[in-house]
């Protein structure tokens, strides 16, 4: 490992340790060395649930009471059934006072049982010093005030201990008639639910206690619930955390001793079953966790993140293996690249360890654990995608030099050039366009070639007859075939052309029927086949109609990034994607592999992968030797990208073994990396679409049922936002450095890419579930679409965009301002950006054209004076002017 690499490794490790240390820094709070007056007591264990009939045994109740004895003088219960009537009896040996509770709701028969048992417990146990009938029964609407008054009068007449009911402070103010029927006022004051920040929470409790005292001066006031949760979502300025729980309770206990307050802390033990009723936060109000371990000390500093050194070590070790592998294997970057990639790896490891810590520190049932596992796997995939994107970014921006740079070439004067068979498939294409393509082929500066035009599945003779006539006029080396029915889509037509190929032809060239090639195309590329290892030679797709409209300008620059960034990097590891135009293939290799795959709608990319699997070399020359036409409408643009993405999934499903296991395949690790990493962004679009579709109902649940539906983990949401921001920044940075493009052109490229995110996601999901989507041709020269037709092409994206905006507005109205609210709203708005881009590009596709001329446009990157690869020495160099146009 180089000194730069070692320095980068140490630096990111130290930064990781520093962040964990900052998160785990001790929090100061006033010590409390007294005895707690009382705690709410629910002895349900981690796997218990009263709603499902799983209740604690007498032994479990006794064990919990024994533990409470060490910290509190009394307990408050909530029910007298299901074995909880034993609490006073079991508490007597420990000297604990009991405020006996009876749960009252709309089940009148059960209410009778509660009252009978609570009265019996009070009569038989002298340590029952209070009875509390009902818990927030008025707040929940389970009982009317008159019903509750009836129960209060009855129990007061049958016992001698003080009787009351427990409600939040505001319910007592709204129902002063209840105060006349009780012996004391039992109020709940929980500042967390009111969104009060922790440093103001004790003052909030005291203010409301005094307010109730002033309203009912002749009644004793008891804080029957007061506390703070250690986990759960943030409400307003109230953050649930172990440190905040400890800080609040220690401050409150000291204030309660000063003020002489009577209270019950909420609560003794965490109750995981309450998450189903109150959302995740309902499980985390205990002084002890569900495993009966203390969550914070009552004296000394409070550690907000127990065991943070172990978490720091885990994050360091998780990042160490990929960082060391990267630093030892990659030797082609400038120093900035050696700092950037380890930093991204360490940040990813930190986030994964943090997410794992959050997940393992929460109480989850089977369904929640499954959901969390799926969420963690999705988060892991997000970071795999981020690392792949970061690797392309680093190599494109900070690579020292290209090792496989292929300029245009020319044959040796003493060698006879091989015969080339040019195949031109066409289906329902405008004849004038096809004839223009053929006329350009007639002007090729190459001594020995033939052109085979295969018109397949075109029903209208008016489209193919003129092409047939043009071929007859162009000469005997132009042959035309019309097939009324040709199975296998474009691959079927190309296989037919292969069978008609002159036996003398050694190279097969393929172009689309809208491409106008330069005369030097074959002369500049065929010489690379002098090396027997070369299986195919590829030049970029390029287009001549970018200046006609803003829509096509966006399409043009979106395409340019792939050909002048992605393909250049893939070429470094002999891993380029073959595309079905401007490509030349060694005929012997093509026939040996069985021709074009008629089962695949992306037969070009599939053939390129098979050639690489067979051990062939590929050559990518960045000069544009031909220019075609782009889709005329947003609908056609979408159909084209759907076919590419769906076809990629088909290829991955068919070739997964060769890509992963590699037995019987000549693919190198670098080739496997580029093919798998190249498909990851499309898989990210599918994952993003799934998240988007889930975000709307999730937001509806947040708005309508805030106590039961929590915000997704912030680390997952933040990771998704970070990936979006990184990909956007990467686009602008790399387009400026490597395409090159102006800021406006980069913006148009980003608009085009974002507009297809929904389509790509839908194609990938469809491709994972099916394998029989038909070949969707990309029509050319259609003319401009009508406004309504153009906008209709983006109706699905528009509907989902409006749903996301509505969800964001609903969440904002329901929750107001809070960190997790802002993060979720930002996520919803960012998720809508690709959908809004689709609507914008659809509108641009219907706008009037700027001009009708089809002027050539180029996006070739600036030359860097890079050396040719080991395949080039047998070829004569081209003049410096042409060579300078290479990447």
Fold topology:
Layout: H1 3-23, E1 39-40, H2 58-69, E2 74-76, H3 87-91, E3 97-102, H4 108-124, E4 128-135, H5 137-140, H6 145-158, E5 163-168, H7 169-174, E6 184-188, H8 198-215, E7 220-226, H9 242-259, E8 263-265, H10 275-278, H11 308-329, H12 335-360, H13 366-398, E9 409-410, E10 419-426, H14 431-442, E11 449-456, H15 461-474, E12 478-483, H16 489-499, E13 505-510, E14 516-517, H17 521-525, E15 534-538, H18 550-571, E16 583-586, H19 587-592, H20 603-613, E17 617-620, E18 626-627, H21 634-660, H22 669-704, H23 714-738, H24 743-755, H25 757-769, H26 787-792, H27 795-815, H28 819-845, E19 876-877, H29 880-883
Parallel strand pairs: 1-2, 2-3, 3-4, 4-5, 5-6, 6-7, 7-8, 10-11, 10-13, 11-12, 15-17
Antiparallel strand pairs: 9-19, 13-16, 14-18, 15-16
What's the short version?
With 887 residues, the chain is an alpha/beta fold. The chain has 29 helices and 19 strands. Among the domains are: 3-21 and 306-398, no CATH class; 35-283, Glycosidases (TIM Barrel, Alpha-Beta Barrel), CATH 3.20.20.
């Amino acid at each position: 490992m180089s000194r730069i690499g070692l320095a980068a490794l140490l630096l990111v490790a130290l930064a990781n340790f520093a962040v964990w240390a900052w998160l785990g820094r001790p929090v100061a709070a006033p010590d409390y060395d007294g005895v707690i007056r009382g705690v709410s007591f629910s002895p349900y264990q981690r796997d218990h649930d009263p709603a499902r009939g799983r209740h604690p045994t007498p032994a479990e109740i006794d064990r919990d009471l024994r533990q409470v004895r060490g910290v509190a003088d009394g307990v408050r219960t909530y029910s007298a059934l299901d074995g909880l009537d034993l609490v006073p009896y079991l508490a007597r040996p420990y000297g604990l006072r009991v405020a006996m509770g009876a749960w009252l709701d709309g089940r009148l028969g059960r209410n009778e049982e509660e009252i009978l048992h609570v009265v019996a417990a009070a009569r038989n146990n002298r340590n029952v010093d209070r009875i509390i009938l009902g818990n927030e029964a008025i707040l929940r609407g389970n009982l009317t005030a008159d019903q509750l008054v009836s129960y209060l009068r009855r129990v007061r007449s049958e016992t001698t201990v003080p009787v009351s009911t427990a409600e939040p402070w505001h319910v007592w103010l709204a129902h002063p008639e209840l105060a006349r029927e009780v012996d004391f006022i039992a109020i709940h004051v929980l500042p967390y639910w009111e969104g009060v920040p922790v440093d103001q929470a004790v003052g909030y409790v005291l203010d409301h206690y005094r307010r109730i005292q002033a309203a009912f001066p002749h009644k004793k006031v008891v804080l029957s619930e007061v506390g703070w949760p250690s986990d759960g979502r943030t409400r307003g300025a109230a953050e649930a955390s172990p440190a905040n729980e400890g800080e609040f309770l220690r401050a409150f206990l000291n204030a309660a001793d000063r003020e002489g307050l009577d209270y019950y802390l909420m609560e003794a033990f965490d109750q995981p079953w309450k998450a189903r009723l109150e959302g995740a936060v309902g499980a985390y109000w205990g002084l002890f966790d569900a495993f009966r371990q203390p969550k914070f000390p009552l004296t000394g500093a409070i550690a907000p993140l127990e065991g943070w050194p172990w978490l720091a070590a885990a994050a360091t070790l998780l990042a160490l293996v990929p960082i060391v592998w990267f630093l030892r294997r990659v030797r082609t970057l400038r120093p900035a690249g050696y700092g950037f990639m380890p930093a991204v790896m360490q940040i990813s490891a930190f986030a994964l360890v943090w997410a794992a810590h959050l997940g393992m520190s929460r109480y989850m049932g089977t369904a929640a654990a499954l959901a969390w596992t799926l969420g963690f796997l999705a988060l892991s995939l997000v970071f795999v995608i981020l690392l792949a994107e970061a690797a392309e970014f680093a190599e494109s921006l900070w690579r020292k030099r290209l090792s496989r740079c292929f300029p245009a070439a020319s044959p040796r004067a003493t060698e006879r050039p091989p015969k080339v068979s040019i195949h031109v498939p066409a289906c329902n294409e405008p004849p004038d366009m096809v004839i223009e393509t053929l006329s350009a082929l007639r002007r090729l500066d190459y001594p020995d070639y033939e052109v085979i035009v295969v018109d397949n599945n075109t029903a209208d003779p008016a489209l193919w007859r003129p092409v047939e006539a043009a071929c007859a006029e162009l000469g005997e080396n132009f042959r035309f075939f019309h097939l009324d029915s040709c199975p296998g889509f474009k691959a079927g037509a190309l296989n037919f052309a292969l069978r008609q190929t002159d036996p003398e032809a050694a190279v097969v060239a393929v172009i689309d029927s809208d491409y106008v090639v330069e005369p030097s195309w074959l002369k500049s590329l065929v010489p690379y086949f002098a090396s027997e290892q070369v299986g195919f030679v590829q030049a970029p797709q390029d287009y001549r109609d970018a200046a006609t409209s803003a829509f096509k300008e966006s399409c043009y620059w979106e395409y340019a990034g792939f050909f002048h960034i992605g393909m250049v990097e893939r070429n470094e590891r002999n891993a380029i994607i073959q595309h079905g135009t401007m490509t030349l293939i060694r005929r012997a290799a093509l026939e040996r592999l069985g021709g074009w795959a008629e089962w695949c709608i992306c037969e070009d990319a599939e053939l390129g992968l098979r050639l690489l699997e067979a051990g062939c070399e590929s050559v990518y020359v960045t000069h544009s030797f031909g220019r075609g036409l782009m889709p005329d409408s947003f609908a056609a643009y979408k159909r084209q990208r759907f076919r590419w993405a769906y076809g990629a999934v088909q290829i991955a499903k068919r070739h997964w073994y060769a890509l992963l296991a590699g037995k019987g395949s000549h693919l190198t690790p670098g080739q496997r990396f580029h093919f798998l990493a190249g498909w990851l962004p499309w898989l990210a679009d599918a994952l993003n679409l799934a998240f988007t579709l889930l975000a709307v109902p999730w937001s509806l649940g947040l708005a309508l049922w805030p106590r039961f539906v929590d915000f997704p983990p912030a680390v997952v949401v933040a990771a998704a936002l970070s990936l979006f921001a990184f990909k956007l920044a990467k686009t602008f940075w790399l387009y400026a450095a490597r395409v090159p493009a102006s800021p406006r052109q980069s913006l148009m490229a980003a608009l085009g890419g974002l507009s297809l995110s929904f389509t790509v996601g839908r194609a990938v999901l469809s491709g994972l579930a099916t394998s029989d989507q038909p070949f969707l041709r990309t029509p050319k020269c259609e003319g401009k679409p009508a406004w309504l037709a153009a906008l209709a092409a983006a109706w699905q994206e528009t509907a989902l965009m409006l749903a996301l905006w509505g969800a964001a507005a609903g969440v904002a109205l329901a929750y107001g301002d809070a960190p997790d609210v802002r993060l979720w709203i930002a996520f919803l708005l960012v998720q809508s950006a690709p959908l809004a881009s689709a609507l914008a590009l659809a509108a641009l596709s219907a706008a009037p054209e700027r001009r009708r001329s089809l002027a050539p446009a180029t996006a070739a990157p600036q030359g860097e004076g890079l050396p040719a690869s080991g395949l080039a020495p047998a070829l004569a160099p081209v003049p410096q002017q042409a060579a300078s146009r290479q990447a």
